[in-house]
From TrEMBL:
The protein's Enzyme Commission number: 1.1.1.276
UniProt source species: Flavobacterium bizetiae
Pfam families: adh_short
Family: Belongs to the short-chain dehydrogenases/reductases (SDR) family.
Molecular function terms, GO-annotated: serine 3-dehydrogenase activity
The keyword Oxidoreductase is annotated on this UniProt entry: yes
Name of the protein described by the UniProt record: Serine 3-dehydrogenase
SUPFAM superfamilies: NAD(P)-binding Rossmann-fold domains
EC primary class: oxidoreductase
Keyword entries, A-Z: Oxidoreductase
Length: 250
């Protein structure tokens, strides 16, 4: 029987590439994101391969998150795999001049949003004593870099929450793990720099960064291991990157 995967942040970058690879590998796919036009376009594309359902909600809105996920039609409601991917950085400022709205956005989306989605999905997994949750962390979950303060804080929280989920869900045989990418060339930096495309593109200049498809490929690998294998924690960087701040550029 086909398994069902729910992916947050499926309208762009890592989430979109993950939806594409999972659809082509015989999973039913639930696409989540705010941008309805992108959801509709991706749903149309992936319907050539599998059954697809889209949910449009802001992960910050806990009522909408719970209602949306609880409203899934029966053929999509038995979620086997949850990919908690929605998230972004907002701003890159020292702590003394950081913007309160940026801090709220990062904490509300990257941490609280991940929790709301998990809260909606976990009962479907505990009820059947199986499931797989993959949280997308970051190298920023493992180290802190200049001006990364709150973003790194949110990703450290994702790392800790992942470990907590793994412990609490152990009695239910639910697999829980995190994947922590280094720099991936997506819309991430455009969001961080509030639409400043030139500043964003400079982040990935002079080296060969990870692509969204590289991470999607790894997510598919992690999900497709035999059930007794749980890849708990995985850090992946481009070959040019040695740490958050050390990148070999041309
Ligand atoms: P993108 O900006 O390309 O994608 C972010 C996704 O998150 C979009 O689909 C967006 O959808 C969704 N999203 C953002 N805010 C919300 C919200 N409030 N409610 C619902 N969905 C939301 O970035 P990436 O693909 O790079 O990022 C995906 C994850 O990977 C993030 O958690 C990020 O922190 C992490 N990451 C990224 C790295 C990178 O270098 N790119 C490296 C390490 C980790 P929409 O706007 O339609 O709602
Ligand atoms: C995204 C990678 O280095 O910009 O999490 O924090 S980085």
């Amino acid at each position: 029987m086909k398994k069902t995967v729910l992916i947050t942040g499926a309208t762009s970058g890592i989430g979109k590439a993950t939806a594409q690879i999972m659809a082509k590998n015989n999973y039913k796919v639930v696409l989540c994101g705010r941008r309805k036009d992108r959801l509709a376009e991706l749903e149309k594309e992936l319907s050539a391969f599998t059954e697809v359902h889209s949910l449009s909600f802001d992960v910050r809105d806990k009522k909408d998150v719970l209602e949306s996920i609880n409203s899934l039609p029966a053929e999509f409601s038995d979620i086997d795999v949850l990919i908690n991917n929605a998230g972004n950085a907002h701003g890159l400022d020292p702590i003394q001049t950081g913007d309160l709205d940026d801090w709220d956005a990062m904490i509300d989306i990257n941490v609280k949003g991940l929790l709301y989605v998990s809260k909606a999905v976990i009962p479907k997994m505990t009820a059947k004593n199986s499931g797989h949750i993959i949280n997308i962390g970051s190298t920023a979950a493992k180290e802190v870099y200049p001006n990364g303060n709150v973003y790194c804080g949110t990703k450290h929280a994702v790392d800790a929450i992942t470990a907590g989920m793994r412990i609490d869900l152990n009695p239910f045989s639910i697999r829980v793990g995190a994947i922590h990418p280094g720099m991936v060339a997506t819309e991430f930096s455009e969001v961080r720099f509030k639409g400043d495309v030139e500043r964003a593109s400079n982040v990935y200049k002079g080296f060969d960064p990870l692509q969204a498809e590289d991470i999607a490929d790894i997510i598919h690998f992690v999900v497709s291991r035999p059930y007794h294998v749980n890849i708990a924690d995985l850090v992946v960087m481009s070959t040019a990157q040695a740490s958050s701040t050390i990148v070999k550029r041309d």
